[in-house]
Amino acid sequence: MLITVIVLALAALVPSVNHYVAQEQRLAQMQAQIRNRQQQLDDLEAQVARWDDPTFVAAQARERLLFVWPGETQYRLTDTSGEEIPMTTAERREQKAHETAWYGTLWDSMVGASQAAPPEKPSAADDHPKKPAPAPASDSGGSNEPTSDSSDPKDTE
């Protein structure tokens, strides 16, 4: 009888305990997510605060937008391939995104395929095979020369 009571008590408590443990795990996950989001928010607020500094704004304008101060001359170096050196931060970011994105590769292959040279079309003279000249009438009738175009080397290509 005592064993029956214990089994019934366990049967009633086990689902409640499982539910409690699951809720505790979910609560811990949510708290970790809140900490991560708070850290991201702090980082973004720090980035926004940096834009209040005129020196930082000027440096970003020079780097990203290639601005120069009045009286300065900007020189851009190119190598033998014609590509500009050094690349700006935005250009590097764009190039990296373009190299790693699957859809960029797919698009480039589609554009390349549409710009491929079409196969050469035969000229109008090649479209119509030449007709052989009529064979002269011969009394011997035993001519070994072919009278059709089947031996034309252009047909065997």
Question: How is this structure best described in words?
Answer:
This protein is mainly α and 157 residues long. It is 57% helix and 3% strand. It is built from five helices and two strands. It has helices spanning 2-50, 54-64, 89-100, 102-114, 124-127, and strands spanning 77-78, 84-85. The chain has a two-stranded antiparallel sheet. A hairpin with a 5-residue loop joins strand 1 and strand 2. The longest helix has 49 residues, at 2-50. It is flat and about 120 Å long.
Helices and strands: which structural class? mainly alpha
Oligomer: single chain
As a percent range, the share of helical residues equals 55-70%
* Beta-strand proportion: under 5%
Cα-to-Cα separation, first versus last residue: 99 Å
- Which regions have little confidence, pLDDT < 50, spanning 5+ residues? none
Biggest sheet features: 2 strands, antiparallel
Q: Specify the overall morphology.
A: flat
What is the number of helices?
A: 5
| H/E topology pattern | HHEEHHH
Strand order of the largest sheet: 1-2
Counting DSSP E segments of at least 2 residues, the number of strands comes to 2
Mean pLDDT score? 77
Q: Radius of gyration, rounded?
A: 41 Å
Please supply descriptive tags for the structure shown above.
57% helix; mainly alpha; 157 residues; 5 helices
Quick description:
By secondary structure, this protein is an all-alpha fold.
